[in-house]
Amino acid sequence: MTAMQSHEEGHAYADAHRKLALVTGASTGIGYELAKQFAKHGYDLVVNAEDGRIESAATSLAVHGGDVVPIRADLATEEGVETLMTKLAGLARPVDAVAINAGIGVGGAFVDGTSWEQERRVIDLNVVGTTLLAKRVLPPMVERGEGRVLFTASIASTAPGPFHAVYAASKAFVLSLAEALRAELKDSGVKVTALMPGPTDTEFFERAGMTDTPVGRTDAKDDPEDVARAGFEALMAGKDHVVVGLKNKAQVAAGNVMTEPMKAAVQAKQTTPDSNQEEHR
Prior knowledge:
Elements: H1 3-9, E1 19-24, H2 29-40, E2 43-49, H3 53-61, E3 68-72, H4 78-89, E4 97-100, H5 116-144, E5 147-152, H6 165-184, E6 190-196, H7 204-207, H8 214-217, H9 224-237, E7 241-243, H10 246-255, H11 260-271
Parallel strand pairs: 1-2, 1-4, 2-3, 4-5, 5-6, 6-7
Helix pairs in contact: 2-9, 5-6
């Protein structure tokens, strides 16, 4: 079945024996690769993004078999989350797994390098949208006594983030939320996992305006397919979190024995824009 058929005819053709996964931020990057992992492992899909590329992504994902329903909605708004949930309810199928992956960043000095509008959108999507979506998808899972939810956090969640301060803070929120919900739901049958990638070869740095930073320029970025595979496997194994990549694991481990000012200084070496490099050496 094509993605278009799935979109137009909903659950009419759905195989009752196939599970259903929702993946947000699925038009490109880690989200797209997460959706591919679910598809390859026999899940039908609902894929979401705020841009029109979600339609072509759904068509591409459909080659792996099963139904793929694209839903375009901006999860940085409450209306977007409710639109997604309304259309999801229209499928009349339980959601077995959710990857809450949609997120954005913005780079630059907090005082004079970014605008409030940019920072507000990071908060609206990464914090508010993530929380509201979790608030909507978790109760039915708890009622059924089964389900899996993957939150895409970041290794940025483990340290202060100079020159992407609000992004790093938002991912610290996501990680904390995921870990807290996992503890709350430990006896419910619902498993919660946090995915913690490091720098990954996606559109993130371009969209965040961080291509003029050491971390944005480096070629030593992880493959989004590898990140997604690790996240999917951790989710299926019921792990509480997964840090992807040996270098990233070493960074997180080192951070466990460093003070917050020390971690901030280390991060600044990677995230300081070229225009601010001289004054922060």
